Amino acid sequence: MRISVEARGRMVSACIFSAIFAISVATKALGLEAMRTAALGSSSFDTERSGAARSANRHGSLKNSGAKSEPGVKRAEVNNHELPLFAVVSIADQRVSIYNHDGLVDRSAVSTGMLGHATPKGVFTIIGRERFHRSNIYSGAPMPFMQRITWSGIAMHVGVVPGHPASHGCIRLPAGFAAKLWGLTKIGERVVISPEEVTPIEFVSPLLPAPKMQVVAEADQAAPSTPQASLAATPPSSLINPHQYAEQLRAKAVAEKAAAGKTIKEMSAAVRVGQREAARAAAELKAAEAAYASAQAKAETAAKADQVVGSDVSASQQESILGAELKAADEIGAGRSVARRPAKPYEQMVGTTDTAAELADTAAKLEAATTASAAKAADLEDAVRQLNDATEAYGAATNAEKEAVRRMSPLSVLVSKKDQRIYVRQGLAPVFDAPVSVRDPATPLGSHLYIATAAENDGTSLKWSVVSIPTRSAEEWREHKRKAASGAEQVELPPKPRGSPSSAADALERIEIAKDVHDRIAERLWTGASLIISDQPVSGETGPVGTDLTVKVR
Asked: In this structure, are residues 185 and 171 in contact, taking their beta carbons and an 8 Å threshold?
């Protein structure tokens, strides 16, 4: 099939434009990041920004970052980089708003999925970050400052923002805002994608889960002063929150791991020495056994020789010997000299005195060698046992450290009316799940996200915000906004139909959770924790590990 010159020209122009755009986006992003890196005095290009750099960005003024944010936005201060942020993306308005416990932090235009590639709506989490990502779906297209929210290919990243949906499902961000957002957010923070604009509100209810304060004994605080185990000063037997308790557990695990590692090193050397000494003792025992066997063989040979000599002396020989002795005695009595007679046959038998002495000596040496070898073998066995115990303790401390680090991550809880279960995750991995009851199950709950945004002044309770995802479609919301902007005197939303979703407060009241489940949640609950109450089941985006609790709404 022939292609016209005009069509070929358009294709070439499109390719050139795509290449120029990719280069310009990457160059701009790299330039912005280089400026930010230079300002921070950092040369790290790893996947995650270092803690110091992130802290600097969170503490720094957003106005000086050079990012193109929506003008006229009243920004909240970001003074504590440990407190969580969360994002709300409005499909209808094509913009993203970033919030913290004080309210709106920043806002920017975005571009979401076009027709046929709609961006999924629901509650998601930042589960991966990559500063210089290339798409593995769309021919390696550059996606700087990529922050992944699903493993099926949805992420926030730098891209063209034309003012309308234009992506293949991702949330495109302006380059400057993407770089700024990269410095603010971290893995585990929530992203709400809503059909229309929704604003989080502060929410107070005695039905919200409350953190359990822990009493720490003095023994639990006796951890070494290391960078890994640095903790806020806590007096003995004082109350600490679950995050501080997790830090204590981590410090304890680090100390136990270090002690076990030292023991492993010492006992490994002891085992090597013990192996050499046991081998030497075994060789000495083997030589003693051989010497004793030789002495025993000699003794047996001598005994057999004695038996042979005794059996060879017959009665007639004994009589002639006796006669010869009597004759000799007579001659001596007559004064005649007598030549020395041959030795008696029983005087020629091999003597056993030396053989018996040798056997006794080798037996004593064998007993000593056996005792020494057994002692060395016991020492080696004890060293091996201690080495195995230390290795097991090291493994247990390593697992305890990992679990403590996981307990320092935000807790995620999902109550699904569809599944009739409550799911609990932390550190992007399951903790447990349990049955749950929902009163008046025929009435929808809606989808509500409750976020523990900060600690109260008392230090033992939490501040909460809630975002409720609306059920009206984006098209209905656009029509409402168009009529409102046209200058109509009064524009009212249609009345709530029967069976419409509950409010955030009503939804919380309808959930019945067992006390033991409440207690298990309370032990891990602190700032950054989130609770989702939804009619929907757990999304297929939630996998065994590396994902958070996610729900999609229609």
From this structure: no
